[in-house]
Design a protein that fits this description.
The chain is mostly helical. It has two domains: 12-53 and 145-291, Growth Hormone, Chain: A; 58-125, no CATH class. It is 62% helix and 6% strand. The protein contains 17 helices and eight strands. It has helices at residues 3-8, 17-20, 25-46, 48-51, 63-67, 72-79, 134-137, 146-173, 175-193, 199-227, 233-240, 242-257, 261-267, 274-277, 286-291, 295-308, 313-338, and strands spanning 57-59, 82-84, 90-92, 96-98, 102-103, 106-107, 117-119, 123-125. Strands 1-8 form a two-stranded antiparallel sheet. A two-stranded antiparallel ribbon has the order 2-3. The chain has a two-stranded antiparallel ribbon with strand order 4-7.
Length: 340
Amino acid sequence: MAIAERKENGVEPKEFTDIIGGHGPWQLGIFTFFLFCSAPHCMHNLIMTFFAPNVEHWCARSPEALLANISVEQWKNESVPMVNKRGGGMERSSCTVYNVSYTNGTFLSPFLRESDAITCNSWEYDVSFYKSTMVDEWDLVCDREWLVSVAKTVYMIGFLVSVTVCGQMSDRFGRRPVVITCLCVFLIAALLTMLSTNFLMFIVLRFFVALGLTSVFTVSYVILTEVVGAEYRSAYCFTFKFGWVFSYMLLPGIAWLIPSWFWLQCAITVPWLILLCVFWVIPETPRWLLTHGKFHEAEEILLHAARRNKKDIKKTKAALEQFLSRQMKKRKVMKMFSIF
């Protein structure tokens, strides 16, 4: 119901969106910003699938085999033992190798048993599709394969810490400061991730990526519910998820085009630096300002929103003054009762 209709019926506006409009260019600008924020959230959540895929690997050829120009296929056939496959059948081992010798390309240990196999500490990888992954860069195979699960777990811990803390922080310090701070945390951590010199550094930075991204995603959802009219909230919040859905469909294509984890991380991070250039479109929510007694700041933001939504400023200003006056009285009454 429009404000004019409410006044004719003797009903006062219950929310500021009844005055400035529950849906308009002002809300759409905020929505667009957060729609783009939701895209990297999806990509970074799912990216470990492409950072550490199941890459075929085998024990690296010995220096003697390399000097003898032994091919990979010959090395596998003569030096890598057969082991039982998980689903049944046999396959070449990925983690053990026979302790064999080569001289001038001649295999000197023709009679080998399974007990002659030893655990290897270096590997070669199939790079026919994935040109560079974390698996081959830091040898995350065999007895180090569990480190990939650790990275995923630490990321989810960052997720958990974020959803636990960011709500309280945004209630105390405001929605806007938390969004901007966490956006900066995400971008800095994501960019530094590309410069990781070891897997431990990568894991720690992934924690901060999750911390920053999840906070932005969570608080942005709250902001949307606070700046749009009640009748539009479901539509806005539903459409907000399209950023995630679009990224979900786009990510495999990007990973196929960029088969290197370093450049893939660059591709899903650098474009979002533009968000720092347009963060000014995100105001503090009038609802938070009113709750904390910052009526003057709330009025300025609401008048700006009314202009963006092409409302009659003179009528809007008068209506806002009455609305804010009632809010101030309610706050005084609540303070009086809070004493008891």
